[in-house]
Amino acid sequence: MENNKSSLKGRTVYIPRMSYEGARAMAAALHAIGIDAQPVPPSDHTTLTFGKKFSSGDECHPQTVTLGGFMKLLEQPGFDPKKAAFLMPMAGGPCRFGQYSVYVKKVLDQLGFSNILVFSPTGENSYDGFGDEGKGFARIAWRAVVASDILRKLLLKTRPYESTPGTTDAVFNQSLDLICEAIGKRCNSSKEHMEYLINALTVTRDRFRQIPCNYDKTKPLIGVVGEIYCRLDDFANEEVLRVIEAQGGEVWIADISEWIWYTNFRQMGVLRDKGKRFSKLMLAAKIKNFIQHRDEQALLSLFREDFRGYEEPHHVKQVLDKSLPYLPHYGALGEMTVSSGKAMYLYEKGIDGIVDVSPFTCMNGIVCEAVYPKISREHDNIPMKVFYFDGTRSDWDRDIGIFIELAKNYQQKKIKQRVYPNYFLTKQEKSATLAHI
Predict the structure, then answer these.
(1) What fold is seen in the domain 217-255+312-437?
(2) Across the beta sheet with 221-226, what order do the strands follow?
(3) Domain 5-130 classified CATH 1.10.4160?
(4) pTM of the complete model
(5) What is the C-alpha to C-alpha distance for residues 181 and 200, in angstroms, rounded to an integer?
(6) Which of 5, 54, 231, 386 has the most CB atoms in a 10 Å sphere around its CB?
(7) Per DSSP, what are the bridge partners of residue 148?
């Protein structure tokens, strides 16, 4: 299987919707290096029909959704397989996801579409194989991930409080267009590209600040962790984030960048295990890590006031260290250790409940479900619940509603209190803050 930039030339790269904004931003990053790309069309019942038709039933829900999305493309008028590439990243650890790119390729070959390229960056090298010819692309792609994470965070922290329903979604879509335009610009330097992106994010920040909202401290804040694809694809998780909001909650979801930081951490760990602590490969990994951190901080600095109380960990080890008593990262690889550690990090931030969104039969979800009761008991009995998804159910209102009631009850007696952004403060609190200053 070819995995290099030149093999993508002249093709359209189709990107699964592991968050719509994430897929759009990654497509824009490819545009910046002259490669056509676009998200896979929205999923629907036909997606599941195709996915189940070409799988055995033992695969997890994300495989059904992604495979079905690719199969739907084959039916579209004008689709040219010789000019198409399907993006299907790989991952190590216990997740079956690592085999899905191989399976997609097998199905395409059986159907006579062997000329479609299946492009498969891997988590084993922190996805360095994405864009073999130009280090510039890896940096643009990273900025795309961070920018889409920021936009999602703005959406989720604003939408539950909007005065007029639909306003936040409209601003989100306008801002996504603006951000993708900046990411996709062909620039002469990395500095110039960053300037375009900072300008776009500054406009985005100001747009969100102008949305009329009625902020309410009694609304419970629900942390969402779990399997990365299922928690971020609105179709795969039956719009569970909106269900949480409709039932009276606000969502803080784990970012895509969190997984990239974890794969960076694992990449350097693998190099150490192979005796390459002092090697060119390790130096390259550390330089990449340093540059990514610097770029991330440059973008996040624009939102210091907006994200007060919503700060993400400074280093992924903060998350992994918290998981040590339950699922140590040196033995329990993959999302299970990240999800359990992030749950405890969110507890420290004053969260009111933890929802784990996972596909049915997902090993990471099953293992986490086994340790969540102990974590809950040792953290003030914070409500924690795994919700499994397989595309067969859409009536989540009752179960989510019950969980929100548990979160509201916990909110009244919890020890760890939230830090709120200044716009949450009442007039009396703002006056007291100014007087103290």
Answers:
(1) Rossmann fold (3.40.50)
(2) 250-253, 221-226, 353-359, 384-389
(3) no
(4) 0.92
(5) 9
(6) 231
(7) none
